[in-house]
Amino acid sequence: MANIVVLGAGTTGLLAAIALARRGHAISLVEKDPRPAPLAAADVFTAWHRRGTPQALLPHGLMAHARVLLRDRAPDLLAAIYNAGAIDFDMGAFVPGGARVPADDDLRVIFCRRPLIESVLWEAAAREPGLTLRAGTGARGLMVADGEEGSPRVCGVVTDAGEELRADLVVDATGRRAPVWAWLDDAGARLPAERIEACGLVYYSRYYALCDGASFPKGRWLWGPRAELPYALAIVHLADRGVFSITLGLPVAEQALRVVRHDAAFDAACAALPLFAPWVARETAEPISPVLAMGGLQNVLRAIVADGEPVATGVLPIGDALCHTNAAYGWGMAIGMAHAFALVDALAEHPEDRRALALAYHARVSAENEARWRVSTELDRVRTRAWQGDPASADEVPLATAIRELQAAAPLDARVFRAVSRFSTLLDPVGALLGDATLREVARAAVAAQSPAAPPLAASRDELLAVLAALVQED
C-alpha cells in the first residue's frame, strides 16, 4: 500500500485522507491551521479560526450527490453529520403533482454549516488507524525528481518546519489558492494554461437563528428564497439547529450599496426585499454573526494532463485546487468529495503506476469539471452583463440560456423538476440535462401554460439606497 501525504484539512482533504486510510494506505494529513476542538453550535463564530480558509464560515451545504457518496461509501460519516445536527431536506416532496418515483429518494440535500462537517471529519480522521494528523504547520514545497520524458516526479513535500515527508503520492487539497501549481511550474512541469473567469460579484453574508417557537418562513421555494435582482443577487441558505444565512451578492463595480457590510445596513437591506423581509423580522430570527464578506471570486479550471500525458507524476490535486466555480451554485463540497472518491478508485486500479494513476483520475473527473466550469462562467456572464445593462444574447451563452429556461419551468412540470434538480445537486452530469432534446420543449410549453402574477422581489436600487441613507441619518 502507498505512503501518501494529503495537503489541506478542509472537507475535501479530510474525506480523502479518511477514505484512503480505509483502503490501507499510510496517510500524513498536513494542515497549516491548528486542529480545532470539537464545536458546539454556539461556538462557531467565536472559536472557529480558519486563517487558511477564509470562506469557512460562509454559507455551505452538501448537495444530493455528496450525500449519496457518503451514504454509499462512508455511511458512518453521514450518520455522524446528521447526529451533529445537520438537516436532511427532501426535495422529492416538492415534485410538481406530488407523484414520487423511487429515484426521488436520492433528491435529498444536507443543510448545515461548514464547521459542523469539518468538526465531524476532524474527529473521524483523528480516530482512523494509519492516519497521522500534522496540524499547525503547512507545506512550503515539493520534493521532486526527474520523471518520465523529463516531467517532474513528485516524491514528497517539505513542511514549513523544514521536515521532509517522503511519499509515493501527494494529494493537494489546499483549495482555491493551491500553491502546488507554482511549485510544479518551478520544477519545470509543462502546465496547461489555467482557465479563469471572474464571477463578477462580491458576497456579504450574515447568519441568523430562529427565535423560540418560530419556524422557517414558507414559500414556493426549495431551500429558501433566491432572487436575481437588476442590481444584486440575494439568497437564503438553511443550516443546522434552526440557523440560516442570507447572502447578498453585489456587482464588483458597485460602491454605494457596499454599506451593507455594516450589520444594521445589511438587516435593513434584507427587510426591504419582500421575499426576505419575513426572515429578518424580529419575531422570526435574530442575528448570530457579523456580516461576513468575500471577494476576489473566480471560476477556475486546471488540468493535470496535457496532450495526453501527465504534467507531473506522484501528485494529484482535488477539489478547489483543481476546479472551482461560483459559490452561489453550491457545488464546491460535492465536487471535492467526488474528486476524493475518484482518486481512491483510480489508485485501487493503478496502485504502482503513477502515470496510469494520473490518467485514470483525469479521465474520471475532467469532463464534468469542464462542463460545470462552463455552466458557471456562462451563468455569471449573463448576470454581469444584465447588471451592466448589456444583456447577453442566447447565441453568446447557449448553456446558460438553456438552463434558465429549464429552471423557470421546474416548479411547473415533474419531468423538468427532476432533471433540473438532479443537475443542480450534481446527481446527474451536465450532459444529462442539456442532452435531452425534448426537455426544453416541455419546459417552454409548461411556462406558456402558466401566467402567474410575479411577486414583487425588491425595491429598486434607488429605493434601497434611500432606505439605507435614512438609516445612516438616524444613526
Mean pLDDT, nearest integer?
Answer: 90
Tally of strands: 22
Report the biggest beta sheet as strand number plus sense, adding barrel if it closes. 6 strands, antiparallel
Please count the helical segments.
15
What structural class do you assign from the helix and strand content? Answer: alpha+beta
Radius of gyration: 23 Å
Residue fraction in strands = 15-25%
Distance between the termini: 65 Å
Instruction: Indicate the low-confidence ranges by residue numbers.
Output: none
Helix content: 25-40%
Q: Per the principal axes of the C-alpha atoms, what is the gross shape? A: globular
Descriptive overview:
It is a single chain. The chain has 475 residues and is α+β, with helices and mostly antiparallel strands. It has helices spanning 11-21, 44-47, 64-73, 75-83, 114-127, 180-186, 263-271, 277-280, 332-349, 354-387, 398-409, 414-424, 430-434, 439-448, 461-474; strands at 3-7, 26-31, 61-62, 87-90, 108-111, 131-135, 139-146, 152-159, 164-166, 169-172, 195-198, 201-210, 226-228, 233-238, 243-251, 285-287, 292-294, 298-301, 305-306, 309-310, 315-317, 323-324. Strands 12, 13, 14, 15, 16 and 17 form a six-stranded antiparallel sheet that branches. The longest helix has 34 residues, at 354-387. The chain starts with a strand and ends with a helix. The model has no long low-confidence stretch (mean pLDDT 90).
